[in-house]
Specification:
Helix content is about 40%, strand content about 15%. The chain is an alpha/beta fold and about 250 residues long. An eight-stranded mixed β-sheet has the order 1-2-4-3-5-6-7-8, with helices on both faces.
Length: about 250
Amino acid sequence: MPFVAVTGRQIEYRMIPGDHAQPTLVFLHEGLGSATLWRDFPDKAVGRLGARALVYSRFGYGQSDGLVAERTPRFMHEEALDVLPALLGQFRIERPLLVGHSDGASIALIHAAASGRPVAGLVLMAPHVFVEPITVASIARIRETYRTTDLGARLAKYHARVDDAFLGWADTWLRPEFLAWSIEDLIADVRRPMLLIQGRDDEYGSLAQLDRIEAHAQAPVSRLVLDRCGHSPHRDQEAAVLDAIAAFARSLAA
């Protein structure tokens, strides 16, 4: 993949061609994701909509440059308010349709609420707006798996700096001070429609996340709750998620 310089460092990205007249889809990956780990889901979304798409790996992930310091509990705010605006500016992307998964969904929400940049809408898959015990417990379990098995070696196929990717995520979420993390106060500042997608079998979060978003939202909200679906709806129920995103994107233009 090519690279682009953002805040003085290199980010790997992939731009999927499409119609510039439509909002550009911008894919924001999960806490262990990368541009590559989206696999062909962005391509299928582009095939359905005809819009172009930007897929990228955050610092510390994929082949992007590594971390320059330990992440803090504000790492999602820093991505949403510093890195993402600079990246969108580089590509002259205005009013994107943000498609975020897990941490990426939280980043999308923070960006839409507080960056001062317009968005067309938000697709939030398995979003986090506050810290639940189920999330902390699942991260603690996978942190132990990382310590005691070959998980790191397997992740190294996708991340040039695997400790940055895994420990930079897990150890931050497991900090005692992170238990108080919340972005509920930002939800009312999102002025564009949101599509919320969650699996009933999600091991990293519950439907309480969607409930909190709906309780605070001032913009239109729709939700898709999927059976036989864990933390990655776009993998576990790809067809249903593609249908929902396509219908949501078309409703924005109506």
